[in-house]
Design the sequence.
């Protein structure tokens, strides 16, 4: 057994800063909702919470992100990162897609996930993006 | 002349925190742009700069707010305020509307301008809104 030249332990990757995911819990997706049924936005929030979030990602419910015609909607943001708004989600179809997107976002320093790494849904349903406060003029 | 009981000077209103307006200067409004012509987003930025901004409002050019299909676009944001994204602007039609909206936004503490005080354009072309970082859970 060689002990003279042990392989040095790899330097741990820097821990990315935490990410906040805001989910619109009042979204009706522009459609009528039967009485005594949670609105689609609340269903989405509950489904994500039930699934569990990636490390370093917190979730905050918000009353109306004003993207009603293209809901359900969420925002990904974090210190020093571009903020992204995405839409077109349902609790039934998109929990895994959202958590994948949130993880990829978390793993960047600036919030910019390469196009090839984005899911089809994220590519097609980006509502807008906003630069971090620290952005220099372009 | 009565001098014994002079009316006290009114307490000056607190100065609102500064507001940043981000304008997408790469916006083509989803249309072809003739060569050697500034794109519509750049035209809008230049028109706003030429007009001059209200006190307490700064303007920052941004390369792509990812709201290309509903441009030209801008963002209003400020510490402690809701952030708003608006679209559908042109340099020819909307400079006054934008400056009016930016002023009303500046004059709030939280970024929430009453519906009745918003212009028709702002009412109909709100792309999304994002709560301030300080927002409590709802």
Sequence:
């Amino acid at each position: 057994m060689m002990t003279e030249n042990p392989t040095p332990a790899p330097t741990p990757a820097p821990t990315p800063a935490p990410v906040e995911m805001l989910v619109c819990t009042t979204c009706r997706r522009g459609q009528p909702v039967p009485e005594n049924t949670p609105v689609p936005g609340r269903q989405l929030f509950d489904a994500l919470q039930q699934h569990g979030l990636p490390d370093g990602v917190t979730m905050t419910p918000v009353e109306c992100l004003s993207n009603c015609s293209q809901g359900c909607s969420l925002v990904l943001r974090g210190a020093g990162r571009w903020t992204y708004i995405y839409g077109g989600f349902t609790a039934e179809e998109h929990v895994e897609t959202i958590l994948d997107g949130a993880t990829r976002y978390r793993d960047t320093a600036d919030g910019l996930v390469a196009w090839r790494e984005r899911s089809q849904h994220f590519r097609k349903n980006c509502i807008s993006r906003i630069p971090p406060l620290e952005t220099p003029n372009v």
Summary: The first helix of chain A runs from residue 40 to 51. Strands of chain A lie at 19-24, 57-62, 74-77, 83-86, 126-130. The helical segments of chain A are 40-51, 95-106, 120-124. The interface with chain B takes residues 22, 25, 60-67, 73, 75, 77, 83-85, 126-131, 135, 137-138 of chain A (CB under 8 Å).
